[in-house]
Amino acid sequence: MGRVRGRERFREYLGTFKRAMPDARAVIEQTVASGDTVAVEGRFTGTHTGPLATDDGDVEPTGAAVDLRFADVSRVRDGKIVAYHTYYDQLGLLTQLGLMEQTA
Question: Domain 7-96's class?
């Protein structure tokens, strides 16, 4: 999904997924903090019932359920997030949506 800079652009990024999966939910499984760094591990779940915006245009709803593991790493300064990185299996997402076939 590329690089996202700034609070407003981050809201747009999250809105892309909320539009595509209105029932989306993040299930936090573990949080670890050390110094100014916070790591979160969890699952993103939802049903693809709305268009998913991509650089190549909208992906029409597939009706597929998604259960995707993720990890987020944030750096915090003065109580504010100053850096945020999220990691998830993009191939797994496309496979769960039925848009790509995963081979062994």
Answer: alpha beta
What is the distance between the alpha carbons of residues 60 and 63, in angstroms, rounded to a whole number? 9
50: nearest Cα among 38, 58, 39, 41:
58
Paired tokens of 4: 């996202």
Q: Which residues contact 75 (CB under 8 A, 6 or more apart)?
A: 36, 37, 38, 81, 82, 83, 84
Query: What pLDDT, in 10s, does the model give residues 45-63?
Result: 999 999 998 888 899 999 9
C-alpha 1/C-alpha 13 separation (Å) is 9
Give residue 2's pLDDT: 65
Higher pLDDT, 102 or 7: 7
Calpha distance 48→64 (Å, rounded): 5
- What does pTM read for this prediction? 0.80
